[in-house]
Amino acid sequence: TSVEVLCRDAWRAAPPTGTLPRHTIGELTVHHTAAVLGDNRKAPARIRNFQKGHQDNGFVDLAYHYVIDAKGNIYAARSTDIPGETYTDYDPTGHFLAVCDGNFEEQDIPPAQLDALARLLAWASAHFGVPTGRLGGHRAAAATACPGERLYAHLRDGSLKAAVDRHLAAGPPQLVVLCGSAGAARVAAIENGSA
Question: Strands, DSSP E only, in 38-168?
């Protein structure tokens, strides 16, 4: 399995405004943006807005390591070398943070988005040497509804872990980074509704 990821330049990320101490990843943690996702053609712009909001609130970068849109496109956000940041009362040091764009208290997670999440988590599990038993939702670490009941249900019933385990059993996924013309073409396709 390959996991295609849009590099930061492709989605026109702003540079980080600072740095944080490096960390070692030992947990896989799932989030949602809690913003209802309508038209996926707006996903790259939404992600730029999320980044701006986080930086305006004092975070050094977008709070998460990777963002996944409704069609399953994956965007590289902050470096995995540094911990995420949070508005809630847990320390994200050591957590690999994957966020799905949408509010899964109010909407179902699209199958393409859920599959991309499973493939990304399989890559992270293999890459960082984190067993899939260390996979959880944000609400396991803090008083929050995140990642939303309709996404959390896939954690509670074990189906997300089972999907991650299936991808790992087929051989660790390879990360393919889309930058330059390939990245620009994918973002253009997202924005015109064909990806």
Answer: 66-68, 74-76, 95-100, 135-137
What is the residue-wise DSSP string for 137-185? EGGGTSSS-TT-HHHHHHHHTSHHHHHHHHHHHT-PPEEEEE-HHHHHH
Compute the distance between CA of residue 82 and CA of residue 22 in angstroms, rounded to an integer. Answer: 5
> d(Cα 97, Cα 107) in Å, to the nearest integer?
21
Task: State if pTM tops 0.90.
Answer: yes
**Residue 12: which region, alpha, beta or left (left: phi > 0; alpha: psi -120 to 50)?**
left
Residue with tokens 């984190």: 130
Identify the CA nearest to 68 among candidates 47, 39, 38.
Answer: 47
pLDDT band with cut points at 50, 70 and 90 for residue 70: very high
What CA dihedral angle connects 172, 110, 162 and 94, to 10 degrees? 60
Query: Angle CA(74)–CA(30)–CA(99) in degrees, nearest 5?
Result: 35
Helix (H, G, I), strand (E, B) or coil at 55: helix
